[in-house]
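Quick entry between incubations.
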Amino acid sequence: MKPNSLKFRQTVLATLVAAACSSPAMASKTVSWEDILNDDKTTTDVLSYGLGLKAQRYSPLTRINTKNVDNLVPAWSFSFGGEKQRGQEAQALVHDGVIYVTASYSRIFAIDARSGKRLWEYEARLPEDIRPCCDVVNRGAAIYGDKIYFGTLDASIVALNKDTGKVAWKKKFGDHKIGYTMTGAPFVVKDQKSGKVLLVHGSSGDEFGVVGWLFARDPDTGEEVWARPMVEGHMGRLNGQDSTPTGDAKAPSWPEGPDGKKVDAWNHGGGAPWQTASYDVEKNMVVIGAGNPAPWNTWHRTKEGDDPRNWDSLFTSGQAYVDASTGELKGFFQHTPNDAWDFSGNNSVVLFEYKDPKTGKLVKASAHADRNGFFFVTDREKLTNGAGYPNKPTSLIGAWPFVEGITWASGFDLKTGKPIEKGNRPQLPKDGAEKGESIFVSPPFLGGTNWMPMSYSQKTELFYIPANHWAMDYWTEKLTYKAGNAYLGQGFRIKRLFDDHVGTLRAMDPKTGKIVWEHKEKFPLWAGTMTTAGGLVFTGTSDGYVKAFDAKNGKELWKFQTGSGVVSVPITWEMDGEQYIGIQSGYGGAVPLWGGDMADLTKQVTQGGSMWVFKLPKGFKG
Amino acid sequence: MKPNSLKFRQTVLATLVAAACSSPAMASKTVSWEDILNDDKTTTDVLSYGLGLKAQRYSPLTRINTKNVDNLVPAWSFSFGGEKQRGQEAQALVHDGVIYVTASYSRIFAIDARSGKRLWEYEARLPEDIRPCCDVVNRGAAIYGDKIYFGTLDASIVALNKDTGKVAWKKKFGDHKIGYTMTGAPFVVKDQKSGKVLLVHGSSGDEFGVVGWLFARDPDTGEEVWARPMVEGHMGRLNGQDSTPTGDAKAPSWPEGPDGKKVDAWNHGGGAPWQTASYDVEKNMVVIGAGNPAPWNTWHRTKEGDDPRNWDSLFTSGQAYVDASTGELKGFFQHTPNDAWDFSGNNSVVLFEYKDPKTGKLVKASAHADRNGFFFVTDREKLTNGAGYPNKPTSLIGAWPFVEGITWASGFDLKTGKPIEKGNRPQLPKDGAEKGESIFVSPPFLGGTNWMPMSYSQKTELFYIPANHWAMDYWTEKLTYKAGNAYLGQGFRIKRLFDDHVGTLRAMDPKTGKIVWEHKEKFPLWAGTMTTAGGLVFTGTSDGYVKAFDAKNGKELWKFQTGSGVVSVPITWEMDGEQYIGIQSGYGGAVPLWGGDMADLTKQVTQGGSMWVFKLPKGFKG
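Done. Structure below.
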């Protein structure tokens, strides 16, 4: 043993830490489909991303409530360890006294929910040449049977025995060298026709010019059941065979070039469904947001000399309804046709019902707050009925701005479902110029909101959107596709919109589009929200706080400083007669990498990587 | 901006995080010598390593006490950030509402004590070829005037403006390439003769064969006032000139080789005073532990064919009393003569007084729990009187084992001050063999205790020693000195001593040598202790807990799981009418690097890096 250099000891320590570490296997309860189906109602576990199939992130728990939340204290914390920090963006799961949480660099931990003790850890061995656009994050796992599932940055999905952390299977679904990756949490649904439970997940990689795919797999073996590409005219698969093209085989929403062939962008067209689905059990429909078209540059997806508004780049930047039995795209509503701003359409599509204030009838709707600044309520019945071309007729019920200062559109035409654009597309470079003229755009591509999921309270009937006010200077750049390189065709610089704040947590009434309350934050909001029957909204802030608000009026009732930025998603559950709140701390994600002036602002935030669990103090009465 | 590779983005992020980040300068109170002198009595600040010049780590605070400590909750946490974790071994300082805490990789943070917000951070730019033997730790800072002082792994000491974090001066005191480094906290004393305040600090590096030095500097400029080498016969410095040799100029405790010159080991003899001093104001004496002789191999420091017990390798592995005015070595008691086991003698020498049970007279004593397993009480008056050869006459009052199973000595002869050895020195390799025969040794070189400081309660009159039960297989190896290489000449493997525990927190009566109580831990104890007038002992555990014990009987009254191993030193202070406890979490140090079977045991502990602050809950009554 020769302590001859720091490097030597770093290697030693790295080896120690990377070594698999598993406690003796414990036989514990398995997770059934019924458990998942009832996840939104049961309080002792958290079995799905979204805290239920509708992704409402609403808990019926009331023990912690507006009256006592200011007494909340940490029960324990757990450090993800390693010399690996960066962004911690996951939502944890809880089952049978065990917390399953993913962490940066494709790691997953099973932690004893009572003590904070690590039960096992799995860390993917990542190749050097992975291409995550927006930090080495992971957003969570799925659980079913005796297995835990999560995606890795080298475009794989892994199934692990939930009690031991041992790999059951691992499937690579794309070439990480050209940009395929996986950061979203997978999701479990049950095909109501065949009775087969399916593991659904998407790919990431729109910034590198890959076609986005949604996959359904046998959770036991990992074998693909169906796969759906999100670029119009690309061919799907079912049971290992070609199935149907996505939309129209001729892809009329993508132009041909002068040579009569589809423009090159169509081959690399993006639309990655990189976040997590929700599921309409009644209609057997997987609901998922589709990513931005690739490249970002609108003119690569517009017929030369034509108006970009004539070319929709389907099925990107919208909400997709995919048949769980076949993987066919049945319905689609596009939030940003021919998206010129990287608004994408990925973030959560929440399923909810409400009584129409005029007719008194129950409306089955979907809600989505888009990076483009608009909050959409769509008619889920129309979108799931599966008749005809999936982007017509319009299913739009309402589209309201949820942030100030939107520059690209003044609103949406409810008859056509199309935005009323304000001429804010960046123009092509003038003859001889390398770059187009810079224009001012708000929201910027980082979005009015982003990946961080909103929540919906069945009690207040409001949505709680983690939103941001910011903008960008934006210009076109020349571009040709090169495998593995960024495929944008745009340049940008993120800027401030208001002096006093960036983040704005907003409560939105989905029946009226009214902002009922807002809470401002100096730093960007990059954490999801959760709401409870206790009348609370929980979220985290980039300057390290976990916070609770009164769901009715937005009053800040409690905060705790965790030491690094909080950009993850809160959960809650009940155990031994007490209610717990769980969330991760660890700053990172897209903002410090791409956030321009906002990246500068958040330089003062230190990195971290830990799970935090809160409860009312020992012996608390009241 | 091209998101073309993970490496690129890692570099981007590393740059962002490494960037200096300082808030606007705030004018705040400066720290006077009187503030430091009274540190053990004042409750609103922590101004010295040891919580006072005597290093007793005793606080008169009683708000948190045996009755209410089980209600303690975190007030906030702060993440040290970076992709730099490893061991966090510091003791923090508190002044004027600001916490100053050092972290792994030679970092120091100023944190708002109320909010946990970072005020500034300084990170030394470390060269690649540093040689810290036992992790990239730092044990704390010193404060005086408007400056904060701490040591860096490249053998430098840095002074920073305490309000801005800007470097005031930086002094390199040794060549890091040959093994000089600095991990201990510096210490501020005041030469009672000249009235000059001095910044005292030592060097580290005994495992690489460098001579250990103790330095005193002008805290304003960093200029050396005096310097004292710890190997007998080496020459000291005073005001830039040669002063006096350490001990006898002829170094009779080191043998000559067959060539008539001192053995080569004498040139590289170790004795580094790498921990922090205490200070006897009355006698104007800096009290410091001296490290192990180099190399570890006893035969390199023994005259060929002679008994090692005839060669003491002075002034190593003992407690040293150094005149604050001149840097002269005035007194010395050696815990392990001709140390064959790397027991060293560094850890805290605590100054205390007690009434002799027989005579009723006040005894001014020093207490030290050594890695060699014995707890020493020495006569401080004898040791500070400065007459004659510093290792004679014996000043030993008592030497009692504080751990079980000591193999190397059965006890100490109070007349001679020498150990009664049990023939447990590893023997030279037999002719032709590369290694000596392996022997079983307990404690192992990791010690019955180690660097982690004990505390002394003025209330219970007990010492609280963070101790460990373990052992090692141990054998000699052939060795020649090569600059920058490990200089041990020994091989080892750390092993278990008992099945049920490693750590044992022990309360020792310094008048009788009786173990009044003990608390066992499954994992090694590697955190310091602190005790309070509230009747409590605080410490941390390698499996992540901060714990509080009843100082009278060792009953565990409270624990909190921080998520990574706790191997730092607790502090306490009062602010806004509340009492706070501060400690850092972040596993590392020597055990995971050198701990053999114990390193394996602690593999399950994740790394971390955070400051934790605890208090009674909001609105707590009782």
